[in-house]
Amino acid sequence: MKKLFISQPMKGKSDEEILRERKRAIQCAERQLNEPVEVIDSFFQSAPADAKPLWFLGKSLELLAGADIAYFTKDWEGARGCRIEHTCALEYGIETVVEDYSND
């Protein structure tokens, strides 16, 4: 079973919106891969109150290092952290899947 890292824009979104998008991403990834995945939990609901963006990015990159595949959700290109995660995934040979939302 492949370990799946989900990269998604989170700024300005509620926890519910983020979790809903993650659920959809998992379903899409499993359909595209034609197999179930083990999801790496990269949604930090218990982050320190004073955590800065680089804290989140550092934790995300640590988790990305253990992934077999990185899934990038809709509008990832507009989020600084997602772009960095994408570059790292490519540079370090982690398979990437970009959400196909051309039919939206």
Topology:
Layout: E1 2-7, H1 15-33, E2 37-39, H2 53-64, E3 69-72, H3 80-91, E4 95-98
Parallel strand pairs: 1-2, 1-3, 3-4
Helix pairs in contact: 2-3
Protein name: DUF4406 domain-containing protein
Assembly context of the chains: single chain
Beta-sheet strand percentage? Answer: 15-25%
User: With helices defined by DSSP (H or I, 4 residues minimum), what is the helix count?
Assistant: 3
Helical proportion, percent range: 40-55%
End-to-end separation in angstroms reads 29 Å
Spatial ordering of strands, largest sheet: 2-1-3-4
Strand tally:
4
The arrangement of helices and strands along the chain is EHEHEHE
What is the second-level CATH architecture? 3-Layer(aba) Sandwich
Question: Can you summarize the main beta sheet?
Answer: 4 strands, parallel
- Gyration radius over CA: 13 Å
Rounded mean pLDDT score: 92
CATH-derived topology: Rossmann fold
In total, the number of domains comes to: 1
Please identify the structural class as seen in this structure. Answer: alpha/beta
CATH class category: Alpha Beta
Query: What is the overall shape?
Result: globular
Low-confidence parts, pLDDT < 50 over ≥5 residues? none
Protein name: DUF4406 domain-containing protein
